[in-house]
Amino acid sequence: MGKKITDKVTWVGKTDWELKSFHGDEYSTHKGSSYNAWLVRDGKNVLIDTVWGPYDKEFVTRLNEEIDLKDIDAIVMNHNENDHSGALPELMREIPDVPIYCTKKGEQILRGLYHQDWNYVTVKTGDTLDLDSCRLTFVEAPMLHWPDTMFTYMSGDNILFSNDGFGQHYATESLLESTADMDEVMREAKKYYANILTLYSPQVTRKIREILEMNLPLNMICPSHGIIWDQNPAGIVQQYLEWADAYQENQITIVYDTMWNSTRQMAQAIARGIESADPDVKVKLMNAAKDDKNDILTEIFSSKAVLVGSPTINYGISHAIAGLLE
Ligand code: FEO
Fold it and tell me: Does the predicted model carry a pTM greater than 0.90?
């Protein structure tokens, strides 16, 4: 069954406790993840996003327990990467004529992925969908983190459905900021930003400023992975602005690989030297061949300086260092 978030909004997603890697093997998910989908019930009933393909039948079955599928008036697809659109074909077999609201790029991606001539309704920033007592407003957010991405804002409950933005790969029963282990959540939120969004920081800053200028009241942010920001949604928005602004902590990260222990000894000697020169600086030593690459990138993201050391092999550098530098 779903989880009621407000009188009108129910979480109908999937918590994936066992997920250990994502994007193929490009992102480690030590804490699992969730694919958050939302059912908004008002004069019209709208589903926002779906879940990853392997869970498509489970998703449609559970959604059907929550609402007669024929009573769904519209589907909003904020972003169409497979983890959010994967269950769409299974659902559309049941309700093939229901309109799918998405960006123009979103339609292209859905057509490319699933080769279906569904009832697409393409929307732009400022377009709205009236549900009766509340209204959905769409805000395009290209490259946060795909070209098709958009956010959906719900008036009345004052919720921003932000898809990947403000998300974390984090499986939890509690689902709410008010009840989650926030140390773990913030660690995963930072890892998500560092690994998925750093490249798009200029777009992050511009989009947040654009949305802030709309002066929309904001009670909650509901991302498509991890917890709902229900206590202090402005806090994660402010944190994103800081992360997007050449973020640094008083930290230096030393990443090395080693063949016969020599490069490790050099890395450790450098670490001791830094610590004796500045006891306040946090020094992180990480072995590129043994430590998780996404964790290393998160430490690099937090650092004011990074040192990289590799043993020499065949006139080159080790593949672990080469992969990390790429
Ligand atoms: Fe969670 Fe970009 O998909």
Answer: yes
